[in-house]
Structures are given as C-alpha cells and as structure tokens.
Amino acid sequence: MKEFWESIENLTYHILLYPMDLLRSFELENWTAANFINWLFMLIGFVAFLYWMKELKKYNDNDEENRDPKAHSFLN
Q: Is residue 35 a contact partner of residue 26, using CB atoms and an 8 Å limit?
C-alpha cells in the first residue's frame, strides 16, 4: 500500500507540477516571460468581454425585447 501512495506522490510532484516548478524558477530571471500565460488569459478574457458587449449592444439596438416591468411573470 505504501508504494501506491508513493507513486501518487511521484506522479504529482515530479510529473504534474514540474511545469509550475520551471515557471517558478524562470520568474527570477524574467518576470514578464514567466507570467506570459497570465497575460494570455487576461487578453482572452478582455477580447471575450468586448465581444459580449458588442453582442449585447446589437440585441439592445434591435429593440425587440419587451422592457415593461411586468413583462416577465416572475416580476409580478
């Protein structure tokens, strides 16, 4: 049973978390390159936000929605 838990430890620390250890050691040399993944995710989120706002404006300008406060049954 001990070998089973040691194999899970080996898988976790030496295989799955190895890329994070590389990024941690690389951060001391070049902060921007080490945080490239974070910058990439922030860029993707910003582009998605802009796209969503554009779509909301398109549906808002179409003016098909009934905006009466009693238009929805759950607002009675």
A: no
Q: What are phi and psi of 29, to 5 degrees?
A: -90, -45
Specify the residue for token string 């898988």.
Answer: 11
- Give 40's Cβ-side CA count (13 Å radius): 5
Query: What is the model's pTM?
Result: 0.55
Q: Which parts of 1-76 fold into alpha helices (H)?
A: 2-10, 18-27, 31-34, 36-62
Query: Percentage of the chain with pLDDT > 70?
Result: 92
**How distant is the alpha carbon of residue 50 from its chain centre?**
15
